[in-house]
Amino acid sequence: MRGLRTGSLRVRVTATAIAVLLVVLPITGLTVKAVFDAQAERSLDSLLTGRAQLAQQLARQNVAPGNLVRRVDADGVRVTLILRNGRQLGAPPIDAGGTVRQVKATLQAGQQTKGATLMLSADTSLLADASARLRRVLLISGALAIIITALALVIGMRFALAPLDAMTGLARSIAAGRRGGRLQPERADTELGRTAAAFDEMLDALEGAEGAARRSEDRMREFVADAAHELRTPIAGLQTAAETLIQLGPRAAANQRGQLELLLVRESRRAGTLVSDLLELSRIDAGLQLHLTQVDLHHLAESQAARLRLVAPDLEVEVDGSAIVSADPERLAQVLANLVDNARQAGARTIRLTVAASGVLVEDDGPGVPPEARERIFERLVHGPHSKGAGLGLAIARGVARAHGGDLTVADRPDGKPGAAFHLHLPTSPPNPDV
């Protein structure tokens, strides 16, 4: 692929203008000279013809031959009158041809001039001289026009290309790290105006993308730091329990050894859960693969309710409504499990799952979520006041919901009672399984 030709625009425009002049001026000069020569020939013919007509008119007025010659005579015209008796008046006759243009006429009236021969001669060398002078004038004026035009273009292009210089200066300042500058064209309906407006739009998009990338990078760094902090706690517990077991050795009491082994299992499970959640979030960011099928939402909600009754027998769980949707059953079960477990950990005594074609509403009678925290709890590694996890569950749940083309929100309970209401919104049409 050939690169963009980046020769000097000033040189290119100047050279183009001069090339146009070199073509136009000779054509114009030749045209002017041809018109001048033709007009001069017609003028000379008209002069000779007019003098001959004047002679005929004077002859009809019976003007004397000598007086007729004087009155017909004109600058550049030789008048010769040959009477019937052979007498010649005026200039001596010359032969036509070469540089001599001649008109002959026989006078038709007059006592002395009737039948006389009138010869009018003109030297065309004067026309040739005038044509040559015109040619020299055209050549000199054309050369001066080209020189003046070149100088004017060199000077004028500096002002004409000032907007491009402004664009270049702004681009270099942006590349040097100075942000925020814009061209702000006065008119956007001209070629340079449209270019400047497009340049400003490009800078807006680039700076917006740069800002988004910087914010994303900051969030990623914060997320990595928080994840490392969360992993440090179970790893520290594992290390402490393992070192204590090694120090106690075989002399350790059975109950003390059992507590340490239980701590090892609990902390390793906690670390494993955190790593699994982090991997789940990375899958969501990369584009979650869904395995869509027809899902009975009532059956899915009832399964979670049955599990919860086994884990917390004193918890009251209700399931109402029914609906069949196109979704990934394992992913929806993951979302519902997260929601009911969060409600239980928050201290709820009653949980109600309401199923509909638009999704599932999970209500509890726990402490609820303050309005100012209702978006923040869905961020990664954000712990609620009653949360016992790593702060990834709700972020994963919302990511799964949005992968289905829906969403996950939290609000007050519709009946106005204390508690929280998490609404899993599902689309009425099947989502794209490659999202």
UniProtKB/TrEMBL annotation:
Enzyme Commission code: 2.7.13.3
Keywords: Kinase, Membrane, Phosphoprotein, Transferase, Transmembrane, Transmembrane helix, Two-component regulatory system
GO terms under cellular component: plasma membrane
Keyword Methyltransferase: no
SUPFAM superfamilies tied to this protein: ATPase domain of HSP90 chaperone/DNA topoisomerase II/histidine kinase, Homodimeric domain of signal transducing histidine kinase
TM region positions: 12-36, 137-161
Domain Histidine kinase: 226-430
GO molecular function: phosphorelay sensor kinase activity
Annotated protein name in UniProt: histidine kinase
Region: Disordered, residue numbers: 414-435
Reaction catalysis annotation: ATP + protein L-histidine = ADP + protein N-phospho-L-histidine
Keyword Transferase carried by entry: yes
Domain HAMP: 158-211
Places the protein is found: Cell membrane
EC category: transferase
Domain of life: Bacteria
Species this chain originates from: Kribbella rubisoli
